[in-house]
Structure formats: structure tokens, C-alpha cells
Amino acid sequence: MPETSGFAGRTPETDVIDFRAAEQLLAARDPRGAVKLLDEVIASHPENTAARLLRARAFFAAAQLRPAELEFTIVLEREPDNAFAHFALARTYERAGRSDQAKRHFRLAAALDPQPEYLAAARFDS
Q1: Spatial separation of the C-alpha atoms in residues 76 and 80, rounded to whole Å
Q2: Range of the domain at 36
Q3: pLDDT at 1 over 90
């Protein structure tokens, strides 16, 4: 009997191709298309932090703030020193009107990686 699940015919190569295609879709401003591809990659490889980070970015770009928050949180559970994930989670909180939570993660991002964008967002002077 043939396999009917979404995983039929999936190989590591298929997952890499889908990940790269999702990167291109996100760059081309099609975050929903990127999420769709990444859903299958993550279903096959739930431990893949890079795919989760890309899916979080796609959710954010699609204004799906709760799923973005959840994905960024999973990334940070696995990589607590990921400055970009802290910064992106902070932007997600900021967009959702949760400024206290945003400020904390902006400051963590800046402390981990003092690049100008992170430092400006951290507003250490306020």
C-alpha cells in the first residue's frame, strides 16, 4: 500500500531543497509559502533550529505573532545565547504591544552582540 502521509518520498535532500526554497520565498516576500515548506521540514526534523528560526521569521513577516513568538522561544530554549533570536522575539513582543517583554529581549540581544541595531533598540539610556 503506498504511503499517503506528507512525509512520503521525503529525503534529507528534499528537506535541504525545501529549506533553501523557503529562504528564497521569504526573501521574495512570500512568508506564507515559506511557512508551508518549513512545516514539512520541521515535521521531519523537529530538532532543526535553523529551520525553526526561519519559520519564526516567516511567521513574523506574515504578522502571525503568536506562532512567531512560540518558534523564537523554542530557538532560545535551545540556543539561549542567540542574539538574533532575542532581537527578533523582542520585535515580535513590540509589535504585539508587549513593551516590557520586548525591552528585556532587546537588552539581552545587545548584551550578547553589541551591534548598533541591537544597542539602539535596547535603549540602555532609558
Answers
A1: 5
A2: 9-70
A3: no
